[in-house]
Design goal:
- The chain is mainly α.
- 59% of the residues lie in helices and 0% in strands.
- It has 15 helices and no strands.
- Helix 2 runs antiparallel to helix 3.
- The longest helix is centred in the first third of the chain and has 38 residues.
- InterPro entries: DNA_glycosylase (IPR011257), HhH-GPD_domain (IPR003265), HhH_base_excis_C (IPR023170), HhH_motif (IPR000445), NTH1 (IPR030841).
- It comes from Nezara viridula.
- This is Endonuclease III homolog.
Length: 338
């Protein structure tokens, strides 16, 4: 009897034209099941008559309506947030050219660097430095096959570390007379190779480096040298300075500034680095951050010769330097009156 009354009551609600949501329909079904369980359970005193049941259903319907409204509001809010997030302006990424000449307008650059560079050019015109006639970039035979010539450029660069150009040039002459090719060096014993390159700096270590690198060139590069800085630096005894110079002198590609002890020292003296650098590699990175790329090739040869003749490591000839009045490290006292 109770179940019949319940069904009639539910039908009456629907017939009266009330809008019933899916959530409410499921609620009615659940309520029906609960009441059927209650009526079938003996001794349950919580349900005494149909009016109590009707009252209970009405209360639960009100709660269901509130929940349904909250659910609908939640869905609307979520959709609104999605729409709003879709309308947000996407973050704009500013891309710059790989050419480091195109740098931000507010980039740092040393004061009067153009004047300083022009003065160095003028001073270098009137003098011949060892690097001009015996440097790695000029000390090669253009009559050789490209592979052999590139190999000799690399060997010259490996010998040049901690070695004066004059000593390096003499060692290269002895190696060429001996036969400076990949196959011939691999067939040369260590003692003979050591005598040929002595007295370059760290000659014993360089014998091992030359043998190991030459073996790799034979096995992996068909007796030629690698075509990238990364591959060159992976060779035994080859650092960033040698790699960039090898790319320039061997392949004719400018990949970076070759920074040796002269370029490193002079760049710090001239204030061409924003902060003092402790290593040539740090100096290279600092220079490339502001120096136009079309000057990268020139600046190595220019500063090396300048360091060999005027801006020497010990007792630089500041009195004969055209930059003595503007160089931060100048040892010439100013003659201006206070």
């Amino acid at each position: 009897m109770l179940c019949s009354r319940l069904l009639l009551f539910t039908s009456k609600i629907i017939m009266e034209g009330k809008s019933v949501s899916l959530t409410q329909k499921y609620s009615f079904r659940n309520q029906k099941k609960k009441l059927e369980n209650l009526t079938s359970t003996s001794g349950n005193s919580s349900v005494t008559n149909v009016d109590d049941v009707d009252s209970k259903i009405k209360k639960e319907n009100d709660v269901s309506d509130v929940k349904s409204e909250n659910t609908d509001e939640t869905i609307i809010l979520k959709n609104a947030k999605k729409a709003q997030s879709g309308r947000k302006r996407k973050s704009v990424k500013v891309s710059y050219s790989n050419d480091q000449d195109m740098i931000k307008k507010d980039k740092w650059e040393p004061e009067n660097w153009n004047i300083v560079l022009d003065n160095i050019r003028e001073m270098r015109k009137d003098m011949v430095a060892p690097v001009d006639t015996m440097g790695c970039d000029v000390n090669n035979d253009l009559n050789l096959t490209p592979e052999v010539r590139r190999y000799q450029v690399l060997i010259s660069l490996m010998l040049s570390s901690q070695t004066k150009d004059e000593v390096n040039f003499a060692a290269m002459e002895r190696l060429r007379d001996h036969g400076l090719t990949v196959d011939n060096i691999l067939n040369t014993d260590d003692d003979t190779l050591g005598k040929l390159i002595y007295p370059v700096g760290f000659w014993k270590t360089k014998v091992k480096y030359i043998k190991e690198t030459t073996k790799i060139l034979k096995q992996k590069y068909n007796c030629d040298i690698p075509k990238t800085v990364e591959e060159l630096c992976s060779l035994t005894g080859v650092g960033p300075k040698m790699a960039h110079l090898a790319m320039n002198c061997g392949w004719g590609v400018i990949t970076g500034i070759g920074v040796d002890t002269h370029v490193h020292r002079i760049s710090n003296r001239l204030g061409w680095v924003q902060k003092l650098t402790k290593t040539p590699e740090a100096t290279r990175i600092a220079l490339e951050s502001w120096l136009p790329k079309d000057l990268w090739k020139e600046v190595n040869h220019l500063l090396v010769g300048f360091g060999q003749t005027i801006c020497k490591p010990v007792k630089p000839d500041c009195s004969n330097c055209r930059n003595k009045a503007i160089c931060p490290a100048s040892q010439v006292k100013s003659t201006k009156k206070k």
